[in-house]
Protein backbone atom coordinates (compact mmCIF):
# COMPACT_ATOMS: atom_id res chain seq x y z
CA UNK A 1 0.00 0.00 0.00
CA UNK A 2 1.09 3.58 -0.69
CA UNK A 3 0.82 6.22 2.07
CA UNK A 4 -1.12 9.43 1.33
CA UNK A 5 -2.75 12.22 3.33
CA UNK A 6 -6.49 12.82 3.53
CA UNK A 7 -9.00 15.05 5.31
CA UNK A 8 -11.75 13.48 7.44
CA UNK A 9 -14.72 14.83 9.32
CA UNK A 10 -13.94 14.42 13.03
CA UNK A 11 -16.87 16.23 14.64
CA UNK A 12 -20.45 16.85 13.51
CA UNK A 13 -21.28 20.56 13.37
CA UNK A 14 -24.26 21.98 15.21
CA UNK A 15 -23.87 25.48 13.80
CA UNK A 16 -21.10 27.20 11.89
CA UNK A 17 -18.40 25.06 10.29
CA UNK A 18 -14.83 25.62 11.53
CA UNK A 19 -11.55 23.93 10.57
CA UNK A 20 -11.70 22.08 13.91
CA UNK A 21 -14.52 19.92 12.55
CA UNK A 22 -11.93 18.20 10.33
CA UNK A 23 -8.58 16.48 10.74
CA UNK A 24 -5.69 15.49 8.47
CA UNK A 25 -4.72 11.80 8.57
CA UNK A 26 -2.32 9.40 6.91
CA UNK A 27 -3.95 6.60 4.98
CA UNK A 28 -3.04 4.23 2.15
CA UNK A 29 -4.13 3.40 -1.38
CA UNK A 30 -3.31 0.23 -3.37
CA UNK A 31 0.25 -0.06 -4.65
CA UNK A 32 -0.80 -2.46 -7.43
CA UNK A 33 -3.42 -1.01 -9.75
CA UNK A 34 -6.49 -3.10 -10.59
CA UNK A 35 -7.59 -3.38 -14.21
CA UNK A 36 -9.14 -0.21 -15.63
CA UNK A 37 -7.72 1.95 -12.83
CA UNK A 38 -5.53 5.04 -12.79
CA UNK A 39 -3.26 6.43 -10.08
CA UNK A 40 -3.55 10.22 -9.85
CA UNK A 41 -1.92 13.08 -7.97
CA UNK A 42 -4.58 15.63 -7.05
CA UNK A 43 -3.18 19.05 -7.91
CA UNK A 44 -5.99 21.39 -6.89
CA UNK A 45 -9.47 21.21 -5.39
CA UNK A 46 -12.47 23.49 -5.71
CA UNK A 47 -14.63 23.85 -2.59
CA UNK A 48 -18.42 23.83 -2.86
CA UNK A 49 -20.76 25.41 -0.29
CA UNK A 50 -23.42 22.82 -1.11
CA UNK A 51 -21.47 20.20 0.84
CA UNK A 52 -22.62 21.94 4.05
CA UNK A 53 -26.08 20.40 3.59
CA UNK A 54 -24.52 16.93 3.92
CA UNK A 55 -22.77 17.53 7.25
CA UNK A 56 -24.62 16.62 10.42
CA UNK A 57 -28.05 17.27 9.03
CA UNK A 58 -30.71 14.70 8.27
CA UNK A 59 -32.90 15.42 5.28
CA UNK A 60 -35.87 16.26 7.51
CA UNK A 61 -37.86 18.14 4.90
CA UNK A 62 -37.31 15.99 1.82
CA UNK A 63 -40.91 14.82 1.81
CA UNK A 64 -41.72 11.48 0.23
CA UNK A 65 -38.58 9.40 0.77
CA UNK A 66 -39.72 6.98 -1.94
CA UNK A 67 -39.62 9.70 -4.60
CA UNK A 68 -36.52 9.48 -6.79
CA UNK A 69 -33.82 11.99 -5.84
CA UNK A 70 -30.49 12.19 -7.67
CA UNK A 71 -27.77 13.71 -5.49
CA UNK A 72 -24.00 14.07 -5.76
CA UNK A 73 -23.45 11.93 -2.65
CA UNK A 74 -25.00 10.99 0.68
CA UNK A 75 -24.69 12.39 4.18
CA UNK A 76 -21.25 12.62 5.77
CA UNK A 77 -20.55 11.28 9.24
CA UNK A 78 -17.58 11.27 11.57
CA UNK A 79 -14.65 9.52 9.91
CA UNK A 80 -15.87 10.15 6.36
CA UNK A 81 -13.73 11.87 3.73
CA UNK A 82 -15.43 14.84 1.98
CA UNK A 83 -15.12 15.17 -1.75
CA UNK A 84 -15.27 17.92 -4.34
CA UNK A 85 -14.12 18.79 -7.85
CA UNK A 86 -10.40 18.34 -8.45
CA UNK A 87 -7.85 18.58 -11.22
CA UNK A 88 -5.30 15.78 -11.15
CA UNK A 89 -2.34 14.42 -13.09
CA UNK A 90 -2.06 10.77 -14.04
CA UNK A 91 0.93 8.97 -12.48
CA UNK A 92 0.20 5.40 -13.57
CA UNK A 93 -2.48 3.70 -15.64
CA UNK A 94 -3.69 0.20 -16.51
CA UNK A 95 -5.91 1.43 -19.35
CA UNK A 96 -5.10 2.72 -22.83
CA UNK A 97 -7.47 5.64 -22.24
CA UNK A 98 -4.95 7.46 -20.05
CA UNK A 99 -1.17 7.64 -19.81
CA UNK A 100 1.22 9.14 -17.24
CA UNK A 101 1.29 12.92 -17.51
CA UNK A 102 -2.30 13.29 -18.69
CA UNK A 103 -4.42 15.90 -16.93
CA UNK A 104 -7.90 14.95 -15.75
CA UNK A 105 -10.82 16.29 -13.73
CA UNK A 106 -12.95 14.24 -11.35
CA UNK A 107 -15.01 14.40 -8.18
CA UNK A 108 -12.31 13.47 -5.71
CA UNK A 109 -12.07 12.63 -2.01
CA UNK A 110 -10.00 15.17 -0.10
CA UNK A 111 -6.83 13.13 -0.54
CA UNK A 112 -3.37 13.93 -1.96
CA UNK A 113 -3.20 10.88 -4.23
CA UNK A 114 -5.71 8.24 -5.16
CA UNK A 115 -6.53 5.21 -7.28
CA UNK A 116 -9.55 5.91 -9.49
CA UNK A 117 -11.49 3.97 -12.10
CA UNK A 118 -10.77 5.45 -15.52
CA UNK A 119 -14.49 5.83 -16.20
CA UNK A 120 -14.65 8.47 -13.44
CA UNK A 121 -12.12 10.76 -15.17
CA UNK A 122 -12.39 13.36 -17.93
CA UNK A 123 -9.24 14.44 -19.79
CA UNK A 124 -8.48 18.18 -20.05
CA UNK A 125 -5.85 20.23 -21.86
CA UNK A 126 -3.60 22.01 -19.36
CA UNK A 127 -1.06 24.52 -20.65
CA UNK A 128 0.43 27.96 -20.16
CA UNK A 129 -2.85 29.69 -21.03
CA UNK A 130 -4.96 27.05 -19.30
CA UNK A 131 -3.53 26.31 -15.83
CA UNK A 132 -5.08 23.48 -13.80
CA UNK A 133 -7.23 25.89 -11.75
CA UNK A 134 -8.99 27.02 -14.94
CA UNK A 135 -10.76 23.66 -15.02
CA UNK A 136 -12.25 24.38 -11.62
CA UNK A 137 -13.35 27.90 -12.52
CA UNK A 138 -14.01 29.37 -15.99
CA UNK A 139 -13.74 26.02 -17.81
CA UNK A 140 -14.86 23.90 -14.90
CA UNK A 141 -17.85 22.80 -12.89
CA UNK A 142 -18.28 26.29 -11.43
CA UNK A 143 -18.88 28.21 -14.65
CA UNK A 144 -20.61 25.22 -16.25
CA UNK A 145 -23.17 25.28 -13.43
CA UNK A 146 -23.66 29.00 -13.97
CA UNK A 147 -24.07 28.48 -17.73
CA UNK A 148 -26.55 25.64 -17.38
CA UNK A 149 -28.70 27.53 -14.92
CA UNK A 150 -28.59 30.84 -16.76
CA UNK A 151 -28.74 29.64 -20.39
CA UNK A 152 -30.18 26.14 -20.49
CA UNK A 153 -32.70 26.53 -17.65
CA UNK A 154 -33.19 30.29 -17.37
CA UNK A 155 -33.12 30.99 -21.14
CA UNK A 156 -31.53 34.38 -20.47
CA UNK A 157 -31.81 36.89 -23.29
CA UNK A 158 -31.04 40.50 -24.17
CA UNK A 159 -34.44 41.73 -22.98
CA UNK A 160 -34.09 40.29 -19.48
CA UNK A 161 -33.71 42.15 -16.23
CA UNK A 162 -31.77 39.64 -14.10
CA UNK A 163 -31.02 39.39 -10.39
CA UNK A 164 -28.17 37.15 -9.17
CA UNK A 165 -27.83 36.56 -5.43
CA UNK A 166 -24.34 35.88 -4.01
CA UNK A 167 -23.01 37.40 -7.23
CA UNK A 168 -19.41 37.65 -5.97
CA UNK A 169 -19.22 33.92 -5.29
CA UNK A 170 -17.89 31.20 -7.54
CA UNK A 171 -21.06 30.26 -9.41
CA UNK A 172 -22.74 33.63 -8.93
CA UNK A 173 -19.90 35.63 -10.48
CA UNK A 174 -20.03 33.55 -13.66
CA UNK A 175 -23.83 33.52 -13.78
CA UNK A 176 -23.85 37.33 -13.60
CA UNK A 177 -21.19 37.67 -16.28
CA UNK A 178 -22.85 35.19 -18.62
CA UNK A 179 -26.14 37.06 -18.35
CA UNK A 180 -24.37 40.36 -19.06
CA UNK A 181 -22.51 38.90 -22.03
CA UNK A 182 -25.80 37.70 -23.48
CA UNK A 183 -27.13 41.23 -23.35
CA UNK A 184 -29.19 41.20 -20.17
CA UNK A 185 -29.33 43.94 -17.56
CA UNK A 186 -27.85 42.37 -14.41
CA UNK A 187 -28.29 43.24 -10.73
CA UNK A 188 -26.08 41.48 -8.19
CA UNK A 189 -26.00 41.26 -4.42
CA UNK A 190 -23.13 40.53 -2.06
CA UNK A 191 -22.19 40.93 1.60
CA UNK A 192 -19.27 43.37 1.87
CA UNK A 193 -18.06 46.72 0.57
CA UNK A 194 -15.02 45.08 -1.04
CA UNK A 195 -17.17 42.59 -2.95
CA UNK A 196 -19.58 45.34 -3.91
CA UNK A 197 -16.71 47.17 -5.61
CA UNK A 198 -15.79 43.91 -7.36
CA UNK A 199 -19.31 43.59 -8.80
CA UNK A 200 -19.41 47.18 -9.97
CA UNK A 201 -15.85 47.81 -11.12
CA UNK A 202 -14.65 44.42 -12.37
CA UNK A 203 -17.75 42.44 -13.32
CA UNK A 204 -19.38 45.59 -14.74
CA UNK A 205 -22.88 44.77 -13.54
CA UNK A 206 -25.67 47.25 -14.24
CA UNK A 207 -26.37 47.58 -10.51
CA UNK A 208 -25.16 45.97 -7.30
CA UNK A 209 -25.82 46.26 -3.57
CA UNK A 210 -24.63 45.03 -0.20
CA UNK A 211 -27.54 43.12 1.32
CA UNK A 212 -26.12 43.70 4.82
CA UNK A 213 -26.38 47.47 4.32
CA UNK A 214 -29.51 47.64 2.15
CA UNK A 215 -32.54 45.36 2.38
CA UNK A 216 -32.91 43.13 -0.68
CA UNK A 217 -36.53 44.18 -1.24
CA UNK A 218 -35.57 47.86 -1.07
CA UNK A 219 -32.65 47.45 -3.47
CA UNK A 220 -34.63 45.47 -6.04
CA UNK A 221 -37.47 47.99 -5.92
CA UNK A 222 -34.93 50.70 -6.73
CA UNK A 223 -32.94 48.87 -9.40
CA UNK A 224 -35.82 46.98 -11.07
CA UNK A 225 -38.91 49.14 -10.54
CA UNK A 226 -40.79 47.42 -13.36
CA UNK A 227 -39.99 43.97 -12.02
CA UNK A 228 -37.41 41.28 -12.68
CA UNK A 229 -37.86 38.85 -15.54
CA UNK A 230 -35.23 36.36 -14.32
CA UNK A 231 -33.67 35.52 -10.94
CA UNK A 232 -30.70 33.19 -10.45
CA UNK A 233 -30.81 32.31 -6.76
CA UNK A 234 -27.89 30.89 -4.78
CA UNK A 235 -29.08 31.84 -1.30
CA UNK A 236 -32.71 30.95 -0.59
CA UNK A 237 -34.44 32.03 2.60
CA UNK A 238 -35.34 35.69 3.06
CA UNK A 239 -33.38 36.75 -0.02
CA UNK A 240 -35.39 34.41 -2.22
CA UNK A 241 -38.61 35.69 -0.66
CA UNK A 242 -37.61 39.27 -1.50
CA UNK A 243 -36.72 38.26 -5.06
CA UNK A 244 -40.12 36.61 -5.55
CA UNK A 245 -41.77 39.85 -4.46
CA UNK A 246 -39.68 41.74 -7.05
CA UNK A 247 -40.57 39.50 -10.01
CA UNK A 248 -42.57 40.89 -12.90
CA UNK A 249 -45.35 38.99 -14.67
CA UNK A 250 -44.27 35.65 -16.20
CA UNK A 251 -40.90 35.91 -14.44
CA UNK A 252 -38.59 32.90 -14.13
CA UNK A 253 -36.62 31.87 -11.06
CA UNK A 254 -33.72 29.42 -11.30
CA UNK A 255 -32.73 27.71 -8.05
CA UNK A 256 -29.04 26.86 -7.92
CA UNK A 257 -28.25 26.88 -4.19
CA UNK A 258 -29.66 27.46 -0.72
CA UNK A 259 -26.61 28.55 1.24
CA UNK A 260 -28.70 30.38 3.86
CA UNK A 261 -30.53 27.15 4.71
CA UNK A 262 -27.75 24.55 4.59
CA UNK A 263 -27.08 24.63 8.34
CA UNK A 264 -30.72 25.14 9.37
CA UNK A 265 -32.79 21.94 9.31
CA UNK A 266 -35.86 23.87 10.48
CA UNK A 267 -35.62 26.65 7.90
CA UNK A 268 -38.90 27.62 6.26
CA UNK A 269 -39.49 28.52 2.65
CA UNK A 270 -40.78 31.80 1.20
CA UNK A 271 -44.13 32.99 2.55
CA UNK A 272 -45.25 34.71 -0.68
CA UNK A 273 -45.79 31.77 -3.02
CA UNK A 274 -49.24 33.17 -3.83
CA UNK A 275 -47.41 35.52 -6.20
CA UNK A 276 -46.70 32.57 -8.48
CA UNK A 277 -50.41 32.48 -9.23
CA UNK A 278 -51.02 36.21 -9.31
CA UNK A 279 -48.03 36.97 -11.58
CA UNK A 280 -47.87 33.60 -13.40
CA UNK A 281 -44.30 32.93 -12.28
CA UNK A 282 -42.27 29.74 -12.60
CA UNK A 283 -39.41 28.43 -10.46
CA UNK A 284 -37.09 25.61 -11.54
CA UNK A 285 -34.39 23.74 -9.67
CA UNK A 286 -31.66 21.88 -11.51
CA UNK A 287 -28.60 19.71 -11.12
CA UNK A 288 -25.77 20.28 -13.56
CA UNK A 289 -25.16 16.52 -13.85
CA UNK A 290 -28.29 16.23 -15.99
CA UNK A 291 -27.02 18.72 -18.58
CA UNK A 292 -23.76 17.18 -19.79
CA UNK A 293 -25.04 17.55 -23.36
CA UNK A 294 -24.60 21.33 -22.99
CA UNK A 295 -20.87 21.11 -22.19
CA UNK A 296 -19.67 21.57 -25.78
CA UNK A 297 -21.74 24.74 -26.24
CA UNK A 298 -20.58 26.02 -22.86
CA UNK A 299 -16.90 25.44 -23.61
CA UNK A 300 -17.16 27.04 -27.06
CA UNK A 301 -18.85 30.13 -25.59
CA UNK A 302 -16.46 30.39 -22.65
CA UNK A 303 -13.33 29.95 -24.74
CA UNK A 304 -14.54 32.75 -27.00
CA UNK A 305 -15.20 35.08 -24.07
CA UNK A 306 -11.83 34.25 -22.53
CA UNK A 307 -9.98 34.85 -25.80
CA UNK A 308 -11.52 38.33 -25.98
CA UNK A 309 -10.84 39.06 -22.28
CA UNK A 310 -14.56 39.44 -21.67
CA UNK A 311 -14.71 37.25 -18.56
CA UNK A 312 -13.13 38.05 -15.20
CA UNK A 313 -11.60 34.95 -13.59
CA UNK A 314 -11.01 35.41 -9.88
CA UNK A 315 -10.48 32.91 -7.08
CA UNK A 316 -9.46 32.89 -3.44
CA UNK A 317 -6.51 30.50 -3.27
CA UNK A 318 -5.37 28.38 -0.32
CA UNK A 319 -2.30 26.13 -0.19
CA UNK A 320 -1.88 22.55 1.04
CA UNK A 321 -4.15 19.58 1.73
CA UNK A 322 -4.58 20.73 5.33
CA UNK A 323 -6.01 24.06 4.08
CA UNK A 324 -9.16 22.41 2.71
CA UNK A 325 -11.12 22.79 5.98
CA UNK A 326 -10.09 26.43 6.26
CA UNK A 327 -11.09 27.09 2.67
CA UNK A 328 -14.47 25.46 3.25
CA UNK A 329 -15.21 27.35 6.46
CA UNK A 330 -14.05 30.63 4.89
CA UNK A 331 -16.35 30.07 1.92
CA UNK A 332 -19.35 29.45 4.18
CA UNK A 333 -18.51 32.54 6.25
CA UNK A 334 -18.51 34.72 3.13
CA UNK A 335 -14.81 35.46 3.43
CA UNK A 336 -13.89 34.40 -0.13
CA UNK A 337 -14.38 36.10 -3.49
CA UNK A 338 -14.92 33.99 -6.58
CA UNK A 339 -14.28 30.27 -6.27
CA UNK A 340 -12.34 28.86 -3.32
CA UNK A 341 -9.41 26.88 -4.73
CA UNK A 342 -6.90 24.77 -2.77
CA UNK A 343 -3.55 24.03 -4.43
CA UNK A 344 -1.64 21.00 -3.23
CA UNK A 345 2.13 20.76 -2.92
CA UNK A 346 3.69 19.11 -5.97
CA UNK A 347 5.51 16.68 -3.69
CA UNK A 348 2.30 15.56 -1.96
Secondary structure topology:
Elements (H helix, E strand, L loop, with lengths): L1 E8 L12 E8 L7 E11 L35 E11 L9 E7 L3 E5 L4 E3 L16 H13 L7 E4 L5 H12 L3 E6 L2 H10 L4 E4 L5 H8 L4 E6 L3 H10 E9 L19 H4 L3 E4 L9 H13 L7 E5 L4 H9 L6 E5 L5
Parallel strand pairs: 8-9, 8-11, 9-10, 11-12, 12-13, 14-15
Antiparallel strand pairs: 1-2, 3-4, 3-6, 3-15, 4-5, 5-7
Helix pairs in contact: 1-2, 4-5
Keywords: Oxidoreductase
Protein name: Enoyl reductase (ER) domain-containing protein
InterPro entries: ADH-like_C, ADH_N_2, ER, GroES-like_sf, MDR_fam, NAD(P)-bd_dom_sf
Description:
The protein is an alpha/beta fold. It has two domains: 2-135 and 314-343, Alpha-Beta Complex (Quinone Oxidoreductase, Chain A, domain 1), CATH 3.90.180; 141-289, Rossmann fold, CATH 3.40.50. It is 23% helix and 28% strand. The protein contains eight helices and 15 strands. Strands 3, 4, 5, 6, 7, 14 and 15 form a seven-stranded mixed β-sheet that branches. Helix 8 (324-332) links the parallel strand 14 and strand 15. Helix 1 crosses helix 2 and helix 4 (216-223) runs parallel beside helix 5. Residues 67-71 have low confidence and may be disordered. Keywords: Oxidoreductase. Residues 23-342 form the Enoyl reductase (ER) domain. This is Enoyl reductase (ER) domain-containing protein.
